[in-house]
Amino acid sequence: MQALEQLTDEYARARQDARFQAELDDLLKNYVGRPSPLYFAKRLTEHCGGAQIYLKREDLNHTGAHKINNALGQALLTIRMGKKRVIAETGAGQHGVATATACAHFGLECVVYMGEEDIRRQKLNVFNMRTMGAEVRPVTTGSRTLRDAINEAMRDWMASVAGTHYIIGSVVGPHPFPMLVRDFQSVIGRETRAQCLEKLGRLPHEVIACVGGGSNSAGMFYPFVDDADVRLTGVEPGGRGSTPGEHASTLSYGAKGVLHGSYSYVLQDADGQTSDVHSISAGLDYPGVGPEHSYWKDTGRVQYTPVSDEEALSAFGQLAQLEGILPALESSHAVAQAIKTAGQRSKDEIVVICLSGRGDKDVYEVARLLGKDI
Amino acid sequence: MLDSLTRISEKFAQLRNAGQMAFMPFITAGDPDMDLTLALIRELAKRGVDLIEVGFPYSDPIADGPVIQASYQRALDRKLQVRDIFAAIRSLHAEKEPIPPLVGMVSFAIIFRLGAEKFVRLAAEAGFSGLIVPDLPGDEAEDLARIVKSHGLDLVELIAPTTTPTRVARIVKNASGFLYCISVAGTTGVRDTLPAELREQLGWLRTQTDLPLAVGFGISRPEQVDELRGLAEGVIVGSALVKQMQLLADGKATREELLRACGDFAAQMVAATKRTRL
């Protein structure tokens, strides 16, 4: 609790500090390569035969995903708090890589907790993290995935708060994390909004993003929340079906509960025990979801819908063949939803997909699923 | 109910009059089944423990270390449900032999899911004397504290070495029964030495509240009890007994051996806590 209060106070001060903002903006521009392009996917649009589809290319960021936006922001806060050690949890490994990168950049000690099952699925990212000097600690408790990695990171933090900051990777966990991560990721939505106005002279009709814990979608949606005419669609990992244990669609099938210090929708049984979850993508494999997404669901501002493993895998291949872009399996869920619905829109309508990450990390898993050797 | 002493307060008052400390072991409910849990409670009662902390298995126990999480997981793997715990504990209280006050250690996720009012009512009906909710911040516990007190139970709050004085003041307002003082930052588990800062914090806490102070996290040996004499009114031992459950699960001990080992351990700790002040 003391660490959370310290973080809340430090972030409040940082927000008022022009130097902090300037330093972060400079890193985002010169180190990450922002702004990321808003790209017109011409052949995908023709294929779907409806709305014009644009891709917000977070996959082109340094480290290959949106996670770096938050990792750098929180690393700057770590330094402001005078802490020298950083811990993080990771599912697909993108947040782990982003955190390891930020720590290498600033010379901070870095420990990343990662479920044993995810280490198997995401070898490339594990190698990258270790190469950058991070220690990757395998998590062997529970389901050995993202949720267990969060448990272990929280345990580490309780024993190490004095000199350690926990860079949580999504809009989950106790306050102020959901707000903090959303703010650092909001650069995605702010850029997208400005790019739409500049290039297209108008706001999009719909914005689509995938939701696991919900960081890329929260960052994408937040700047559009007051634009009532922009439809916001969050795509959840539908896995193999709606039976408990076969998916990770927290908002579609969950109930109100408490997990990891937030009151939100949770996939759980009648006793409040967290359900096991499944998704083809390690980064969406989480039984909770950011509390603000739960709020947006309840107010009806964002529509949440599941997309199956199979649809995501198919979208992965289609985007590769139609656009020459390999999307992350997480982002493939958002692409799949656009492919399903863009055809129902007229050709002068605009749909933006948040392409939250690139698919390099997933090729071994995709090859395995397709029964091919690499 | 509000004016009469709760069972927990009564127990601490008796011990204080006798110049003795409380010994409170922790056990997991339902590892591997409620029959063993009940047998263990009977054994511990026979050996003279003062209170027993009963852990409700939870899938994501972030405040607990690997030993207790593994124990929780074994119980959940066998489909233990909250209602099984309540039913068994209720049956125990129907028996003739006296049972020491039981304090349920339970995640707020479980309480919220069942509904606080309903959960606390069921706990009271089963015969629990108090609740500890390790993942509910003490200064956000006002509503739950009210419900718990209305059923004549105590809501035991945790104080960590990192808890700031301002928060201690807010937490103590919602606390009753005793304060659970965490000896070191971090999660439960067996440790070798008691940190020096603990002595200082206990002394300071004494000036902030009349509630008895019980120290837990990393306590496992009778000698540690001597170190705490005069500083705290009780000691809590968690992982040490649960480790015996691990041996049972691994096939390295029988049920009888587990009961005897836990009983012998408890007897040692009881003896240490009952030595009157020098």
Can you describe this structure?
The complex is a heterodimer of chains A (374) and B (278). Chain A is built from 16 helices and twelve strands. Chain A is of the alpha/beta class. In chain A, helix 5 links the parallel strand 3 (85-90) and strand 4. In chain A, helix 3 (42-48) packs across helix 14 (309-323), helix 4 (67-80) packs across helix 9 and helix 5 packs parallel to helix 7 (123-131). The radius of gyration of chain A is 19 Å and the shape is globular. Chain B is α/β, with parallel strands linked by helices and 278 residues long. Chain B has one domain: TIM Barrel (Alpha-Beta Barrel). Chain B has twelve helices and eight strands. In chain B, strands 1-2-3-4-5-6-7-8 form an eight-stranded parallel beta barrel, surrounded by eight helices. At the A-B interface, helix 1, helix 8 and strand 9 of A face helix 3 and helix 5 of B.
List the helices and strands and how they pair.
The complex is a heterodimer of chains A (374) and B (278).
Chain A: H1 2-15, H2 18-32, E1 38-40, H3 42-48, E2 52-57, H4 67-80, E3 85-90, H5 94-106, E4 109-115, H6 116-121, H7 123-131, E5 135-139, H8 146-160, E6 164-166, H9 177-185, H10 187-200, E7 206-210, H11 215-221, E8 231-239, H12 250-253, E9 255-259, E10 262-266, H13 291-299, E11 302-308, H14 309-323, H15 329-341, E12 350-355, H16 363-369
Parallel strand pairs in A: 2-12, 3-4, 3-6, 4-5, 7-8, 7-12, 8-11
Antiparallel strand pairs in A: 1-2, 9-10
Chain B: H1 7-18, E1 22-28, H2 34-46, E2 52-55, H3 66-77, H4 82-93, E3 102-105, H5 108-114, H6 116-126, E4 130-132, H7 142-150, E5 154-159, H8 165-174, E6 179-182, H9 196-206, E7 213-216, H10 222-228, E8 234-237, H11 239-249, H12 255-274
Parallel strand pairs in B: 1-2, 1-8, 2-3, 3-4, 4-5, 5-6, 6-7, 7-8
Helix pairs in contact in B: 2-12, 3-11, 4-6, 5-6, 10-12, 11-12
Provide key terms for this protein.
heterodimer; A: 374 residues; six-stranded mixed β-sheet; four-stranded parallel β-sheet; globular; B: alpha/beta; TIM Barrel; eight-stranded parallel β-barrel; 12 helices; 49% helix
